Amino acid sequence: MRLLLLVMLVLVGCPRAGAPPLTVDSRVRRMVPPQAILRVADGQTLSLEVLVADLRSVPITYAGERHDQEADHRMQNLLFRELSDYDARTALGMEMFQRPFQPDLDLWSAGQLDEEALRRRTEWDARWGFDFAFYRPMLELARARILPVIALNAPRELMRAVGRGGLESLDAETREALPELDLDDAAHRAMVAAALGGHGAMSPEQLEHIYEAQVLWDETMAESVAQTMAAVDAPGHLLVLAGAFHVRAGLGIPERAARRGAGPYRIVLVADDLAAAEALATETPRPADYVWVP
Questions:
Q1: Which of 21, 63, 212, 216 counts the most CB atoms within 10 A of its CB?
Q2: Are 206 and 164 in contact (CB under 8 A)?
């Protein structure tokens, strides 16, 4: 969970010979479809086609991920293919890139950067660090179809500063540039507190700083989503890739983006099997609209 990684930060294949080369599109199409998709509202299992039809009816889909799980990224890859098949104005919003690097993503979508240059210029390995291969099919599909890739995240240096010293540690100019922060969402605060339950050695002041950093994290991405959807050249659909904790129950990014006018939306999460999906669906508040079973 990226929240716990933030705490730590603050406190301390080749194709077979003779086979035709895979295209960007065919590589995604060869991915295994889900065993089941559970609609949380009524517990019904649905086909991929029914899920995608509903996602197409709204402007934003939040595809929550466990960053190191291949199954979660397979879900995202398949959804991006399906949504961009339907709407050539689909865009990809990514927690994995920080906002100062948006010009580099624009060059990527325009076909003017190769992968090595993109990773180097966006400082992928230092700032994100998870396996680029998980995201490669989506990024390559975006480039092949000239679709926008949106950097959603706040700079790592800013998150670190708030996590260590709180919002009050920032200078006036930096504070003035921050997005509007809602620090009074009781449900969100409770969710973060539960995730931090194993960090009882921290002082109340340290815990508050961590919470402020988490809110800044979510509000920055929410602001990025809202600005993208309010732009003159807004995409027809935005698929947002972010950690599951950032989208769960809408408390992180989705409702904060909706407060800024970006909605309606759907949330898709992944569970390892149908029993886990059914258990997830019983939680309150409702964690997602759909649970994907790989």
A1: 63
A2: no
What are 8-44's pLDDT values in tens digits? 444 433 334 444 455 665 566 567 789 999 999 999 9
Tokens of 257: 């983006």
Give the pLDDT mean for 247-271.
98
Locate the DSSP E strands across the chain: 36-39, 44-46, 60-65, 90-98, 149-153, 237-243, 265-270, 290-293
- How distant is the alpha carbon of residue 225 from its chain centre? 11
Residue 10: both structure tokens together: 């603050």
Using a cut of 0.70, tell me whether the model's pTM lies above it: yes
The domain spans of the chain are 23-154+232-293
Beta bridge pairs of residue 92:
149, 239
Tell me the per-residue pLDDT of 96-111, one tens digit each, with 9 for 90 and over. Answer: 999 999 999 999 999 9
Q: Which two tokens stand for residue 139?
A: 């990024």
What one-character-per-residue DSSP string does 92-156 give?
EEEEEEEGGGHHHHHHHHTT---HHHHHHHTTHHHHT-S-GGGTHHHHHHHHHTT--EEEEEPPH
Q: Give the integer Cα–Cα distance in Å for 252 and 243.
A: 10
